[in-house]
Amino acid sequence: MKKSNKTGPEIIEINEKIMKANDQLAAENHQKFVASKIKGVFNLISSPGAGKTTLLEKIAPQLSSCGVIEGDIATARDAERLFALSIPVVQINTMGACHLDASMIAQVRDDFPFDQVDYLFIENVGNLVCPTVYDLGEDHKIVVLSLPEGADKPVKYPAIFRKASICVINKLDLEPYCGVDLQQLKTDIYEVNPN
Amino acid sequence: MKKSNKTGPEIIEINEKIMKANDQLAAENHQKFVASKIKGVFNLISSPGAGKTTLLEKIAPQLSSCGVIEGDIATARDAERLFALSIPVVQINTMGACHLDASMIAQVRDDFPFDQVDYLFIENVGNLVCPTVYDLGEDHKIVVLSLPEGADKPVKYPAIFRKASICVINKLDLEPYCGVDLQQLKTDIYEVNPN
Which end of chain A is more exposed for a tag (fewer CB within 10 A), N or C? Predict the structure, then answer.
């Protein structure tokens, strides 16, 4: 079922304009990342509470050097957790917006010490839908799925699983208790994205 | 940090038009619900995989009669699960859209047997952000939070916790394994919404 014609066409028109502006800014962000000689830029996308920040807390100490751009609707709690690791962290509060867009990244382009990090992680707003659409200038999207969310997420939210280069299945230690079929989940992920 | 001026004003203008059209259709939906003598209409909102469908599977047999409108980006898996309970169920596939809006509900207004149910549940797309904004004509919003998502969700996604009349904390049986402080969670919920 599609949206009614009453609002549909207007949304589409404006969306095209917004996406074009976003893509232009994303390309500029990407140029900045390349000029700063960053080896890899990753856009982390997941449902709320899937464990993006905890994953970064585990990954950061393993890397030569990395930095994080934190996106949240409200609070700086995640940024504070990562700041404790003594890595460059900047917090973007989206003021209600359901995703980061390239313009928000562009606003920190001149202040963040990109040339001091080998890897950059951009932690998006917790939302499995909207952040999928907005390129930020990253090299790869990473989707993080928490096992208790259930095995049916890849087929119910296929877009992000198609666009992501990497899928992390998190909270595996809850497998014995949450009744989710890990094999079914893996099968469904490969069905949506064989690569 | 706000959106750049390049795209900002356009979004706001159109959003106002869309919200006005949505509110008008939501009011018409509400009139239909009242005319059908439904005792309560509930809009269920949560992250993906928080357990909205499972909750409905448990609630439905306890009620005199109920019906469900299922919103999903893709698949009819949830609707099929509820159809097995022999209650009226209709599936709305949003074709990528991150939320249900009032126009989508309006499209099933003439077909769904509203006058045969005492309670109507509308299961929104799994998304803790965008569905908050769009009234559908419901009496109450219910937010479902899965315990493994973590205690910080009410302060990080405050809008839905402010707007909801009911908050269901789900997957409590995972409390011993997921290290989430249930008391802290309850404290944060009441901080965001004392009612």
Answer: C
The model's pLDDT over A29-80, given as tens digits with 9 standing for 90+, comes to 999 999 999 999 999 999 999 999 999 999 999 999 999 999 999 889 999 9
Q: How far is B51 from chain A (nearest CA, A)?
A: 8
d(CA A42, CA A139): 6
Interface of B with A in 130-189 (CB under 8 A): 130, 146, 148-150, 152-153, 155-159, 171, 173-174, 177-178
Identify from B128, B145, B155 which residue to disrupt to test chain A contact, counting A C-beta atoms within 10 A and taking the largest count.
B128
Q: pLDDT grade, residue A104 (50/70/90)? A: very high
Confidence of residue A14 (pLDDT cuts 50, 70, 90): low
Name which of A14, A74, A130 is nearest B130 (Cβ-Cβ): A130
Separation CA B120–CA B117 (nearest Å): 7
Please choose, from the candidates A77, A72, A50, A179, the residue with its C-alpha nearest in 3D space to the C-alpha of residue B48.
A50
Distances (CA, A) of A14 to A116, B16, B131, B133: 38, 13, 20, 19
Our CA dihedral for B3, B7, B12, B15, rounded to 10 degrees, sits at -110
* Contact yes or no for B101 and A3 at CB 8 A: yes
**B53 reaches A (C-beta below 8 A):** no
Shortest CA distance from A53: residue in chain B = B150
CA-CA distance, A90 to A46, in Å (whole number)? 19
Residue A92, chain B, CB below 8 Å: the answer is yes
The radius of gyration of chain A's CA atoms, rounded to the nearest angstrom, is: 17
Looking from the CA of B159 toward its CB, the CA atoms found within 13 Å total 17
Enter the pTM of the model: 0.87
Choose among B73, B146, B171: nearest Cβ to A156.
B73
Helices (H), B8-51: 8-35
| Integer Cα distance of A30 and A5 in angstroms | 37
A10 to B17: CB separation less than 8 angstroms, yes or no? yes
Q: What is the ipTM of this complex?
A: 0.81
Going from the C-alpha of A186 to that of each of A56, A140, A155, the distances in angstroms are: 23, 20, 11
